[in-house]
Amino acid sequence: EHFLARIKAHDGHINALITCTENEALDDARRADAALADGTAGALTGIPLVHKDIFLTEGVRTTCASRMLDNFVAPFDATVVAKLKQAGVVSLGKANMDEFAMGSSNETSYYGASRNPWDAERIAGGSSGGSAAAVAAGFAPLATGTDTGGSVRQPAALTGLTGLKPTYGRCSRWGIVAFASSLDQAGGFARSAEDLALMLGAMAGFDPKDSTSAQQDVPDYLAELAQPLAGIKIGRPREFFAAGLDAATGAAVDAAIEQYRQLGAEIVDISLPNVGLSVPTYYVVAPAEASSNLARFDGVRYGHRADSPANLKDLYSRSRGEGFGREVQRRIMIGAYVLSHGYYDAYYLQAQKVRQLIAADFERAFANVDLIIGPTTPTPAYKLGEKNNDPVTMYLDDIYTVSANLAGLPALSAPCGMVEGLPVGMQLIGPQFAEGRLLAATHAYQ
Ligand code: GLN
Questions:
Q1: Which of 36, 37, 111, 181 is least enclosed, having the fewest CB within 10 Å?
Q2: Domain range for residue 126?
Q3: Cβ atoms of residues 432 and 409 within 8 Å
Q4: pLDDT in tens, 1-36
């Protein structure tokens, strides 16, 4: 009731939620009370949370912040949603996001952008901006998100939260509306690494319904928080501190690095020579996969359908033209172009090769260091509208986050200071399945 009251009081302004499921939440909370009373409660029983509106939820609409899915109600829960439900969490609703998770500012949402609770004239980040805004505004202690190119880490950094993108395959993608299937991964937002450890333990695990989910045991992440920092080697890639990084943001990250040194970690200067190619590589691979994934929204099977079509082609083109916003249409066109005959070798195939080079950079680095540290974003949150009309400038801001997705690695953003009254984040990247190490290193810092 406390959290629902906060939502009612402030979400008219913050716009973190697309759908609030008040009645279902109160019913679930009563069930949680009963579990607490009869001794069957677990650590997450009764903990409120919001789900990014990209996770399918049985009986509750899933819009993906698109007109295309404005009235779509899924007939089943995403695996991550089902697992968290099983752990006893109480969902308060569905969080705002960039349309189909394409964006960095939440401004591509059909329902309008979420606002940053630290300064409502600024972006909450994207694409999981509503999830971040909800936790930062005190609407819920936890939120789910997805991270294809930074969509959990970037909004976490801009709203002062801890946000984790696990290893590709750690959490099931079943029931998550697909954006770029080789990059998409479910993640979470919380106020601390400790809360995230609890949440990830409930979300992760093999799922036979997702052929890319990892057949790997889920460790006790809470127990792993005790891993000592002394003796750990943390790499500081010089490419992450080059031109383009706001000086004050870089200084905040360097102060965190100094704190790690004092806590007993060894800081090592490293190089990731190909990470400078991450943004162009990502913006070929992600739109290519998106153009294929979004082909299913044809106005026939589900989603928005244009009125009185003249013929089949008119039905397709008007349904898609009306249902998708500008950024989604732009991505579909870029994707169709880079996959088309005559351009495939020059763009898509080339991007796949560079993707391997980027992954190899990390592999080489992790032969010598346990973790990598850098900034999450080049600057603190900017003003709503500032980069809205300049997609390329917005794409370039993904410079520090997309490489972990291209390499399939787990990465986390945690608050590391304030710049002109706004939070900024540091990013830790680990080798595959080192979520426990990432959370422990963050916990030691926090
Ligand atoms: N900002 C990136 C993009 O627009 C990442 C989005 C995401 O991780 N879903 O594609």
A1: 37
A2: 2-224
A3: yes
A4: 999 999 999 999 999 999 999 999 999 999 999 999
